Amino acid sequence: MRVLGIDPGTLNMGWGLLEGDNEPKALTWGVIKAKRAAPIHERLAFIFEDLQSIFSDSSPCDIAIETPFVGANDRHFVQAAMAIGQAQATAFIAAVRAGMTVFSYSPTSVKQSVADYGAASKAQVQKMVRMCLNLDDTPMSNDASDALAVALCHWRHQKLQQLLDKGH
Q: Do 29 and 14 form a contact (C-beta atoms < 8 A)?
């Protein structure tokens, strides 16, 4: 099983690739960095093109994308969630155009799956990603670490589904 996790953002979009049948192994990860000064439509086009290259180079079976979350009923949070939603939609379209199967996970689901606590901090998630994937170092970027967490969440969900399917 080869899973590409995506942590959407319009400035920094994290991605991380896992592979493994019995135990997941992190193969590679990184961050797509769009120019802050560029208009949103140019940033999304840049992200789209980079995602297409990543999909082509990594050949994942599944794409796992974190869904946006709005923490408060505040204009700033709503605008941030809308931007993340645009980045998520860009990732969806790139994945579908590449013929990939797409799955979505909420931030709480990812944290619960990786850190056994749905309200875990970014530092706790990073530490658990490092431990679960036997990495020597934590990925330098929160975005890349979060993307690996999304991929790990999906990998675990798929393994559980395989076990449940065998039981029937």
A: yes
Q: For the chain, which domains are there?
A: 2-167 (3.30.420.10)
Residue 68 is classified by DSSP as P
Q: Cβ distance 42 to 84 under 8 Å?
A: no
Catalytic annotation, pick one of 19, 50, 62, 143: 143
Q: Give residue-wise pLDDT tens across range 5-48.
A: 999 999 999 999 999 999 999 999 999 999 999 999 999 999 99
CA 1 to CA 150: how far, in whole Å?
15
42 a catalytic residue: no
Query: What is the reported pTM?
Result: 0.92
Rounded to an integer, what distance in angstroms lies between the CA atom of residue 37 and that of residue 136?
35
CA separation (Å) from 46 to 39, 102, 114, 157? 11, 20, 30, 31
Question: Which residue, chain included where needed, has tokens 């995602």?
Answer: 51
- 66 a catalytic residue: yes
Q: Is 137 a catalytic residue?
A: no
How many other C-beta atoms lie within 10 A of the C-beta of residue 155? 24
